[in-house]
Design a protein that fits this description.
By secondary structure, this protein is mainly alpha-helical. It has 16 helices and 6 strands. It has a two-stranded antiparallel sheet with strand order 1-6. It is globular. The N terminus is likely disordered.
């Protein structure tokens, strides 16, 4: 690993102890059936990647080939649904999402294994018997199909993505109820808890944008759009008004950050821009200042047994919020807290462990690749926020593996 070159801090235009409003041209975006501009994926960059495919750019073509393989795999088999589970939630309603706390295990000191005991970072294999796997499979399938349709125009991809969305969210026989009352329950402790809400992050970061990319396709009708918007309106309202949802909103780590991502994205999708903007305007005070230390570290994430991966996981949520903020005129990227807390500083804190190959000093029980984790963030900072200072460290990391989707989402 070569040492980083040219990685100097430069002065940024920020508003101390406040947020910098972007030009009014970015304000007032409202969801409508003719708008194919996704929220967390830059339409301009997607169009540029599409042009590179048309020009036979090798990196873009390799990424497209891998994407199509994923999409082709998603074309077969039954639609994903949570109603086929054999273990019913306490409501006895098969349409209610039901999952197990991933780090909770049977108690070795009791005959019935209750109450469960926590082993942070170690996933209980029993989670596969609940609703997270079909939900995850649906999320990734719809995402890859929608992107593949965008880049190729292949109509069967759109048809299949629409079918999967209708089966999971709209069809009365197979739809999921818009709540997470029984998410990540812990046997012997509770039947559902606030931490389970983290399991629907993919609905905000992948499914909503996938549905937007399907707008205008014959496969996705105005009725489908209205139905999905209603589902997310109901789920957004549950997030904000239920006891479990309110608890998650108060979380002081990545759970709180991703709660804001979800509520903001779902609000944008249903056209409630003012509510999304209000959430983003609170992020400096409620998320950035409490969660980022003056040196850029994230103390809540450093306390975990997978401290590097959780630090990057939380940083990804910050970048998502900053991206949404850019759309709505709330400049979270430029914000600096009273003690120097900022999103760029959180990225800078992690960079030496990739660029300089510096050993990570905290607990990390799972093998990780810092280059792969941070490379998308550097491209994101360059392309979304104009941070040219990250080009040098990005060059030090080198190109991603052949076929990496990053070439289509962040084409440099």
């Amino acid at each position: 690993m070569h040492h980083m070159k040219g990685f100097e801090r430069r002065t940024r235009s920020r508003v101390m102890n406040g947020i910098l409003l972007l030009p009014l041209l970015l304000l007032g975006h409202t969801a409508n059936a003719d708008d194919r501009s996704p929220f967390l994926h830059d339409a301009r960059l997607l169009a540029e990647a599409k042009q590179r495919i048309e020009k036979a750019d090798p990196a873009a073509l390799a990424a497209l080939e891998k994407l199509r393989k994923s999409a082709d795999k998603a074309m077969t088999g039954a639609a994903f649904t949570i109603v086929n589970k054999t273990k019913l939630p306490p409501s006895s309603d098969k349409h209610d999402y039901f999952s197990l706390g991933i780090y909770w295990w049977p108690n070795p000191d009791t005959p019935d294994g209750l109450p469960s005991v926590r082993h942070d970072g170690k996933v209980n294999p029993e989670v596969k018997d609940f609703d997270a796997p079909p939900k995850n499979a649906m999320t990734n399938a719809v995402y890859h199909l929608a992107l593949a349709h965008y880049f190729t125009g292949h109509q069967p991809y759109a048809d299949r993505a629409a079918l999967l969305l209708r089966a999971f969210f709209l069809d009365e026989a197979t739809r999921m109820n818009p709540n997470l009352n029984f998410g990540q329950g812990v046997p012997g402790h509770n039947t559902g808890r606030a931490a389970g809400i983290i399991e629907t992050v993919g609905l905000a970061t992948k499914v909503v944008d996938a549905a937007i990319l399907l707008r205008g396709s014959e496969a996705w009708t105005a009725e489908d759009e209205r139905g999905l918007q209603q589902w997310f309106r109901d789920y957004r309202d549950w997030l904000e008004n239920s006891k479990i949802g309110k608890q998650e909103g108060k979380a002081s780590n990545n759970h709180g950050m991703y709660y804001d991502v979800q509520v903001a994205v779902f609000s944008l999708y249903i056209g409630d821009n003012d509510h999304a903007r209000a959430i983003l305007q609170r992020v400096p005070e409620t998320r950035i200042v409490p969660q980022i230390a003056p040196d850029g570290s994230q103390p809540e994430e450093l306390a975990r047994t997978k401290s590097f991966t959780y630090s990057t996981f939380n940083l990804q949520a910050m970048l998502a919020l900053a991206t949404l903020g850019k759309r709505l005129g709330v400049d979270l990227w430029a914000y600096t807290g009273p003690d120097g807390q900022s999103i760029p500083k959180a990225l800078d804190y992690l960079l030496p462990y990739a660029v300089l190959d510096k050993p990570w000093p905290r607990e990390q029980i799972k093998t990780f690749d810092p280059d792969a984790l941070l490379r998308p963030f550097l491209r994101h900072a360059i392309l979304y926020f104009g941070e040219e200072r990250y080009r040098a460290p990005l060059e030090t990391l080198g190109r991603p593996p052949q076929g990496d989707l990053i070439e289509l989402l962040y084409p440099l």
